[in-house]
Structures are given as C-alpha cells and as structure tokens.
Amino acid sequence: MMISNQFNEIPVTKRAAAGFTLVELMIALVLGLLVVAGVGSVFLANQNAYRTNVALGDVQESARTSFEFLARDIRSAGANPCGTANVASVLNGGGDQMLYSSGNIEGWDNATTVADLPSSGSGAPVAGAGGAIRLSSARGAGLELEAVTGPRANVKLENSTTAIKKGNVLMICDVDKATVFQVTNYNSSGKTVVHNAGAGNPGNQTQCLNHPVPQPPSGGSCNSFHPSSYLAIPVNYIWYIGQNDVGGRSLYRYGRGQQATSGTAEMVRGVSEMALSYHEQGGSGYVAAGSVSNWESVDAVRLELTVRSRGFQPGGARGAGTDNQPLERVYTSTVALRNQLNN
Asked: What stretches pass through the bilayer (predicted)?
C-alpha cells in the first residue's frame, strides 16, 4: 500500500545580500553635510548675535553708570547743606592738596597735565583719552549737635555714631557760618568729637572753630554754634580716564571724602575717552576748559563718553560680531550745575 505526500513542495531560492550603492552613499553624505552646515551656520549666527547683545549690554550699562556718577557730582558741585557761603578752614597747610582746592568746579583739556593725579601705574591718566574735571561740594552727615549753647571747645553730638574716626575731615555749620576741621579724637561713649590743635596730619591751626581762623586773643572765647548745628562732609574729587589693572581704560575718581588723604578709585571699566565742554552764563555755546574765562560762571557741562565693551580678553575687551572685535559707542549728555544757575 502506498501513501502519497499530502504537501506540495515549494521551491526556495537564495536572495542576494541587500545594501547601498556607492552613489546612494555619496548622496546621503552630501545631504548630511548640507544639514550640518545649515545647523552650524545657525549656531554661529546665534553665537555672534549673543556676543553682540552682551557687548552692547556692557556698553550701555557702563555708559548709564558713568553718566549717573558724573551727573550726581556735577549737579551737586557747590552744594552745602549748611546753607551758607561763609565757609572757613582751621586746617594747617602742607597736607593733601585736595584739602585746599578752592572753587566748585575746575576743568582741564588734558588729564595728563593735572599735577594732583598719579603719574604712573594703575589709575594714571591716559594720554589722548580726554580731559579731567574737579568737583567740590559738602554732603550732610546726618549728625546733629547736642543742644548746648555758648562757645564750643569740642563738638558734642546728640547721638553716638560709628561713622566718625580719628583723622577725619569734617565741617561744622549752622545757618550763617561753617568751619572745616580735622578730628583729633572721638569719644563714642561721650559722643564728643575732639579737634585739638597741634595733632594729626595736617592738623588744626587752633582748637577754636573761629571766623576768622586765627586763635582769639587772650581772654577771648571760641565761636558759638547754634544748638541746631550739625556736621557735614566736605568732598573734593577729580574725574578722568585712567589705565586699569588689565591694561584697558576706565573712568577713575581721585580725591577725598572725609579722609584727610586722597585716593584713587576705579569707578566704571570700559570707558576709553571723555571729552568735556563748558557753558558760561551769558555764553552762546559750549567751550573747552582752556577757553573758560570764569569758572564761577560755569552753569552746565557737556559730557561725551566713548565706551568699549568689557570682557576677559587682554585689555578687558569683549569681542562682538563676526570679526570678534570690541564694540564701541559714543554717548553725549548735558548736566546743569544746580548751585551755579543764575548766580
């Protein structure tokens, strides 16, 4: 008996191995390169735009801060919280020159010609970077005197403070007079500001805070200051463009507040040039410092600042744009001297 096969045999053939041809690979590579190039160009464009925006932000921030600092001091030039122009000084001669500079404002067309400024190193004025301006004023210290009438050999405060130190230069004033003196000692518990003669640098000519300055004759008394008198801080600063510690340029301030010795302070980094011009009452325009006839008649200052982007490259510059160079902008502002308007 024979059994037949119930299944049909299906012939099987071997297929060749599948893959990409050389042409297909070349096309894929070209397309891939085009995609990478497109992505790369977008990345580089975004990177350049980011660097430019950061650099522009640096420039605008530096310009805004510089104008704020300068405008505050220019507007305040000649300000005196004592409300009087009758100001005397009992300081000895021979101290820091900024203790004796007179006048509310003074300018120079070339900062390198200002004798008081540092001559070398960080903070020295940069040749060709513009002029300099000196601004003097007095600021309230918020310290009132104890309600004591009669002559004062020492200054007795109403409240104790930590803001006063030995060697500080202060101003005592009431409604009709003011006197600049140096603190020779401060007794915090007794709230007493001592201003003896013959001590300190430069020291006081006399213990009495008199008008005029010389010691009163034998048997005389020191000036009386009203019970509502208070202390102020005379300040005197010169603003200019100097070399900073990384080889770049910055806006600097040289001078003194209540300290008896002047110091240099870097105020805003990246300010590379400063041009100054001045307006005198009755004048038709702004003139250079060398053409000012009377500094007491100056009632406005025009500032032109050239500001460069900051960063961590040599010289403190941050690159921007496709050439990776520092970004520069020039800004101009005009500020009036409040205390010399219509004098």
From this structure: 21-44
